[in-house]
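Example record for the data management plan.
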Amino acid sequence: MKLGRLNHIGVATPSIAKSIAHYRDTMGATVITEPFDLPEQGVKVCFVDTPTASGMNGTQIELIEPYNESSPINGFLAKNPAGGQHHLCFEVEDIDAARAHFEGLGKRILGPTRIGAHGTPIFFLHPKDMMGQLTEIMETPKVDGGH
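Corresponding structural encoding:
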């Protein structure tokens, strides 16, 4: 199994609108996708892109806000009321092979493989098995159409 590129950094926020303004006004970020709901994951999502000095696309940041009171993000925000880094997301070519690889290493996978915000299969690895960092593994999108 070969790990691909870092796709995005997930940032939990109590307000996507305020976070968009922050990244735009302080870092020159542009909105890639308008906020949209992922009720099956309990979150509202928006992707922003941070520019590079050369003007090329930079790093995508996934802003995640709770969708409702049962959102899994609520626990994170209870401990970090201002929000903060929630997860890293890496691409893989074959999600099933990656899952088998990590399971073979004894890594704990949180829940079933499901469709993520990019419309491709994802799963999460337990932070205790990943040096304290919640890690999302995502099948590489077939077409990079923005999000």
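Summary line stored alongside the record: Residues 16-27 form the longest helix (12 residues).
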